[in-house]
Amino acid sequence: ADPSGFLRVSRGISGGVALFAGHGRSAYLCRAETCIQEGLKKGRLDRALKSALTEFERQALKTQLICQLR
Questions:
Q1: Quick one: 19 exposed, middle or buried, by C-beta within 10 A (0-12, 13-18, 19+)?
Q2: H-helix or E-strand containing 47?
């Protein structure tokens, strides 16, 4: 699949979560609000990154990802 059709989220070595950048474990979400909602809500992103997201990280990512769609 063409990676430009996806949004990249990564968990860095220091433990922080970044959108589109960074080294470490990455996960890709399709560019649809339903994919973002389900990835964050059902813990799919946590499993893909092999690390639990804090509620603050979850809300910040949701805001950033949805802004990327507009």
A1: middle
A2: helix 44-49
Q: pTM of the entire structure?
A: 0.79
Q: Residue 20: is its pLDDT beyond 70?
A: yes
Burial (CB count within 10 angstroms: exposed 0-12, middle 13-18, buried 19+), residue 9: buried
* Cβ atoms 17, 10 nearer than 8 A: yes
pLDDT tens by residue, 27-67: 998 888 898 888 888 889 999 999 889 999 889 988 988 88
